[in-house]
Amino acid sequence: MKAISTALPEVLLIEPKVFGDDRGFFFESFNERFFNEAVGRPVTFVQDNHSRSARHVLRGLHYQIEHTQGKLVRVAKGSVYDIAIDLRRSSPRFGQWIGVELSEANQRQLWIPEGFGHGFMVTSDSADFLYKTTDYWAPAAERCIAWNDPTLAIDWPLNGATPMVSGKDHNGTLLVDAEVFV
User: Fold this and answer.
1) Residue 158, exposed/middle/buried by CB under 10 A (0-12, 13-18, 19+)?
2) Over the stretch 107-121, which tens digit does the pLDDT of each residue have?
3) Among residues 2, 9, 84, 89, which is most buried (max CB within 10 A)?
4) CA 156 to CA 50: how far, in whole Å?
5) 62 catalytic residue (yes or no)
6) What CATH number should be reported for the domain holding residue 148?
């Protein structure tokens, strides 16, 4: 495995070593020792989640203000454009975001630590999205930044399409009005 730095230093792109031949492939999708060394601290995951979404489904930008969640995300089938945004007001990178393609072809993962928001948009016919979290889902603590916030100006790869979003995501808060981390 290899950890690759991003423009948001705490957010890491994890690239596994894939062993493949005409029978298929094998790779370690998680190795606690490697992961903790890469992020520089012990991390405990408490929950694994799996979602399936159709093309142009956009989920996010989500975070929990309490019971904060770090997320290790990857795509098992299909492809997504994945976003991490720094929501720590004290950070010099507050409000900055990165976007990466995660797919079954590149097998990459993204580590999004606590204090960051997360969202993704499906760019294939459908996608199976898998993620580990460092805390449990806490509906009362869940928050959502508007996916189309003009100050963030996220360059979603819509190519003229209208994204399919949930009611919650449709009514996301603008960053300027959002409850964020200190």
Assistant:
1) middle
2) 999 999 999 999 999
3) 84
4) 22
5) yes
6) 2.60.120.10
DSSP codes joined into one string, 119-152? EEEE-SSEEEEEEEESS---GGGEEEB-TT-TTT
| pLDDT band of 74, cuts 50, 70, 90 | very high
- Of the residues 81, 131, 136, 170, only one is catalytic, namely 131
Distance CA 119, CA 170 (A): 13
Which amino acid does the sequence have at 93?
R
Can you give the pLDDT at residue 75? 98
Which residue in the list 56, 62, 67, 118 is annotated as catalytic?
62
**Per the domain annotation, does 182 fall within a domain?**
no
Known catalytic residue at 131: yes
Collapsing DSSP states into helix, strand and coil, what is residue 60?
strand
* Domain housing 128: 2-177
> Tokens for 86?
């720094």
